[in-house]
Amino acid sequence: MATQEKRVSLYFLVAGYPFARDTMEPSKEYLFNHKGCYFAALYTSLEQGKKEMKNKQGPNKIFSFSGTVWTQNILSLVIYEGHRNGTEDVENMDRIPWLEYNIKNMDYAALPAPRVFATHLPYYLTPRDLRNKRVIYVTRNPKDVVVSYFHFSKIMYTLEEVSDFNLFLERFLAGKVLGGSWVDHVTGWYSHAQDFNILFLTYEEMKKDLRSVVLKICNFLGKQLSEEEVESVVRQATFENMKKDPRANYEKIDREGTYQIQHQVANKNFQQV
């Protein structure tokens, strides 16, 4: 009898495996795999973007990773006086375009210095000359990352919407999401830090002491701002003010027409880990 029960259990385990395997795979309509990293299928300009970047000789190329919308806004305020004082109405996506996704078909070679780009590329896919430039790498608690990504996928038409969070979590842990494995991405950059001129920041320290982070960024970039200018950056980079600033909200690219800034840390109401 025990043998029969064991056989039945094994039968259902094997029969159920293909179903679990199929649902674990992200839809090819939304993602494709390139050298171990997943990219948005609607924007396939990765190789072109790397080609365009390869020939640039600007004095500064600063790449920001993760926590991107917030970091883009801070960098725009620190680097560009016209953005800081409000005399220039330029969206962050135009000031700091995506390296791997040339969404607006911009001529990257024609961008004025300093050239600033955002990217989620792992260290091994970045252009070679990045090693001679400045890199700002922002990490965030993976618990918050997966929750934020899960909700973000529900409003972004370029991302597959997965209704079941448990399945989404399994994909995230397996690295079968946009950007690939969080663990591999972070450990890869940290273990190769000596190969780059890099500043590591965390989302949590930005949330806790934004002014201190702004000063770190200014020092790293060699950007000298007055006390008044630093305070202006900090004030405009708060979530409250970013929500009011159409330059910072990516409001033209989601389903509903508005990208809401998310800033919760350790969402205990949702996380069960």
Automatic annotation (TrEMBL):
<dbReference type="InterPro" id="IPR027417">
    <property type="entry name" value="P-loop_NTPase"/>
</dbReference>
<protein>
    <recommendedName>
        <fullName>Sulfotransferase</fullName>
        <ecNumber>2.8.2.-</ecNumber>
    </recommendedName>
</protein>
<feature type="domain" description="Sulfotransferase">
    <location>
        <begin position="66"/>
        <end position="257"/>
    </location>
</feature>
<dbReference type="InterPro" id="IPR000863">
    <property type="entry name" value="Sulfotransferase_dom"/>
</dbReference>
<keyword id="KW-0808">Transferase</keyword>
<dbReference type="Pfam" id="PF00685">
    <property type="entry name" value="Sulfotransfer_1"/>
</dbReference>
<dbReference type="GO" id="GO:0008146">
    <property type="term" value="F:sulfotransferase activity"/>
</dbReference>
<comment type="similarity">
    <text>Belongs to the sulfotransferase 1 family.</text>
</comment>
